[in-house]
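User: My collaborator and I are trying to settle a disagreement about how two of our proteins should look. Neither of us wants to argue from intuition anymore, so we agreed to look at predicted structures for both before our next call. Could you fold the first one, then the second, and keep them clearly separated?

Assistant: That sounds like a sensible way to settle it. I'll keep them separate. The first protein:
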Amino acid sequence: LIISLVAIWLTSRYQKHTKKLANDKMMKELFTEFNQRYDIINNKLDEVSKLTLEQWSELSPKEQSEKEGVIIDFFNICAEEYHWHKEGRINGNIWASWYKGMNDIYNRSKVIQNIWDEECKNEGYKSYYISNKNEIFKKT
């Protein structure tokens, strides 16, 4: 009986440790992937976030389309990060840092805010797997 209890305890402990390692590995993979994807758009996103609405309207349709693609990529990354946080795959500390960064970018740019508003019309926010448009971004 004692041997059985020790075996059960050891098995349980091993399973918990294995599960933690798997979760840590997945979180690291997600962290690395999201940071790599963000690094690809970071400079272009920074440029867009500094444009005024007037400067945006002066861009050619082709330039607006290219820059809008970067913004949509940003929205997709943010939505995916939020999804994985809700699923418990991204811990609270990492999420808090990402959430602050996402909202810093969002709140410094009327252009990005307007494009988000357009994306969210007619429940378009649902394509980002959220239940309301204010779930990811909070205006300050």
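The second protein, kept apart from the first:
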Amino acid sequence: LITGVTSGIGNSLTSLLIAQGAQVIGVARRQGELKELEYEYNDKFTGICADVSIQESWSKIIELLPCLPDVVILNAGNCEYMEQGKVDADLVKRVFQVNYFANIYAAEALLNRYPKNFPFHWVVVSSSAYYFAMPRGEAYGASKAALSYFFESLQLSYANANFSMVHPGFVETPLTDKNDFAMPFKITSEQAANIIVNGIRKNKKQINFPFIFTLILKTLGMLPAGLRFYIGKRLVK
């Protein structure tokens, strides 16, 4: 089961996993593009049209699932930036609804349905923004930081299952195409999908990429608060 399959990383994951023999259930809002994927992949792909950010949608998704998925990849995401420190609560709610609450709804709807000792694997696509606060990223970074913390905590209650947290840097997708700033170490969605699938096969707890970029952010995140503030201010245009 993959959310957000009609573009970006989700679309590339779908293509790669089907090529490797997987049966994919894809969830997205765009019915037409889901139908195109069903036509392209025939019986290897089942599309479910639903808005994962609406809690009630998960009842529909559960009803349409042909089986409990062995692997769940929570990939759907959104990004909106706050400009010049102007706090916009509605913007923050919109970003959290997709990046955070949609995945909480998924966990509530699905996790309790697995039989005891069922060896499922949940993969949660967060962001390297989790490691270091960036200008304009108040809503996006906070939603991804909350997402990582929630599932890192939740997995402690599921000793017999695998959870992988994905913290990508900049990936070439329709979402990042909107960015108006330089994106160092940017990779393609196909490259990202390959890294994620390799990490899933190795049961990695964290799948961080590109390596150098996420290492830089991790290191910056460990600096004293005053120094982090100084570096962050230098990034403000």
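Some points you might bring to the call about the second protein. The chain has a mean pLDDT of 92. The first helix runs from residue 8 to 19.
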